[in-house]
Design a protein that fits this description.
The protein is α+β, with helices and mostly antiparallel strands. It has 3 domains: 86 residues, no CATH class; 139 residues, Phosphorylase Kinase, domain 1; 164 residues, Transferase(Phosphotransferase) domain 1 (Transferase(Phosphotransferase), domain 1, Orthogonal Bundle). The chain contains 13 helices and 8 strands. The strands form 2 sheets. A 6-stranded antiparallel β-sheet has the order 1-2-3-4-6-5, covered by helices on one side. A hairpin with a 5-residue loop joins strand 3 and strand 4. The longest helix is centred in the first third of the chain and has 29 residues. The chain is globular, with a radius of gyration of 25 Å. It starts with a helix and ends with a helix.
């Protein structure tokens, strides 16, 4: 239906359709195309206004109609159909398994278990042939394959990508995130993405979901991490309400320990939020660290990265961000966990951005032990905020 919008709107919806594709795929060329379509729409409206009163069979009206039909109407429809597969990719067929790493390419993946001639599960993650028997999926069935990983079920979808519960060659459950950004044919771009994403493996596994593997298959980029069985902090607060003071303190210290490890590894999370804190049986785990930076290697588009309600002032301004930005987002996240409310809210992204820049949330409902640390973390100036290590010591003392 999306690709039919230019046709059904007689070309008027073309700029919006191509603009949506540009935002989804984060391609500068598509952004330029959307601008050109928008300018074409404006130019047509100006010309149509100038031709008011001119007989309909006049050659100028005929020429204008032909140009509109060829560019905005028919051209926009064809353009939308060409982009449809990339804007709304569907992973529904078995994908090739890698034989070398990185990047992940190689021989065709094995057929699904229990099918005739089904051999092994697939090549190990790093392309080293396995001499032992490969595990079967048991009663589970794979909806698709990405590299050597079987995708069992869709877990969720966010701004960065779609997450699946997967199974690794050793039979363990993993989380497989397939990024929305498509990978171009440039090998240096692919290698840069893999290098950047693999940097996340330097982060200690305490209070984080360990990054296991990274790969590129065709134009799909994927990141495999440890699967954490448990709800996100966002879901838990939404369904059960704010955390109690003791639980909030434990949550604060654990997530600060995770941020300290992330920052010590030279990584800035850039999208710390309640949805990226999972509450497993062994405690909170921070996920998706390093993904934003790795995605930058696949796109040259500018703009802010992060979730609006939990962004720092420097993110709102589009400035370079560092660990202090994550500290601000941590403060916003803990405020949400303590109160069940967003620290910065509004009817639009612009209104939320204004709140972040000019407003300080009321810390009255926050437990007394957390008020001072949160006030410091939510300082508007990055250099005035404490580090994650400083905050952890303050809360532990």
């Amino acid at each position: 239906m999306w690709a039919l919008v230019p046709l059904l709107t007689c070309g008027l919806g073309t700029p919006f359709v191509i603009g949506f594709a540009a935002g989804r795929l984060r391609r500068r060329g598509l952004t330029l195309g959307a601008v050109c379509y928008s300018l074409g729409l404006i130019a047509f409206m100006v010309v149509a206004n100038l031709l008011t009163g001119v007989p309909s069979d006049d050659w100028r009206n005929t020429l204008t109609a032909y140009v509109w039909f060829g560019t905005m109407w028919a051209g926009g429809t064809v353009h939308a159909f060409l982009l449809r597969g990339k804007v709304f990719p569907h992973v529904t067929t078995p994908a090739p398994a890698p034989s070398t790493y990185p990047p992940a390419y190689g021989a065709p993946a094995p057929p699904l278990p229990h099918s005739p001639g089904s051999p092994s599960f697939g090549a190990p993650s790093f392309g080293m042939p396995s001499s032992g028997p490969q595990p079967a999926l048991g009663q589970a069935s794979a909806m698709a394959w990405v590299g050597p990983y079987a995708l069992l079920t869709k877990v969720g979808e966010g701004g960065q990508g779609t997450v699946y519960l997967g199974q690794a060659p050793d039979g363990k459950q993993v989380a497989v995130k397939i990024l929305h950004v498509r990978v171009g044919p440039d090998s240096s771009e692919r290698d840069a993405f893999v290098r950047e994403a693999l940097a996340a493996r330097r982060v200690p596994s305490f209070a984080t979901a360990r990054v296991i593997d990274v790969g590129v298959q065709g134009d799909l980029a994927y990141i495999v991490s440890e699967y954490v069985h448990g709800p996100s902090l966002e879901r838990l607060v939404r369904e059960q309400g704010p955390r109690d003071p003791d639980g909030l303190t434990r949550l604060s210290i654990s997530t600060l320990a995770a941020l300290r490890g992330i920052h010590n590894a030279g990584i800035v999370h850039r999208d710390f939020k309640p949805g990226n804190v999972l509450l497993g049986a062994d405690g909170p785990r921070v996920i998706d660290f390093g993904v934003a930076k790795a995605m930058d290697r696949l796109t040259t588009s500018a703009g802010t990265k992060g979730t609006p309600a939990f962004m720092s002032p420097e993110q709102v301004l589009g400035q370079q961000v560092g660990p202090a930005s994550d500290v601000f987002s941590w403060g916003s996240t803990m405020y949400y966990a303590a109160t069940g409310r967003l620290p910065f809210d509004g009817p639009s992204v612009f209104a939320v951005s204004q709140q972040i820049m000019e407003h300080s949330p009321d810390l009255g409902p926050v437990p007394a032990a957390l008020r001072s640390p949160l006030a410091a973390a939510l300082h508007k100036e990055p250099h005035e905020r404490p580090t994650a290590a400083d905050l952890m010591l303050a809360l532990s003392g």
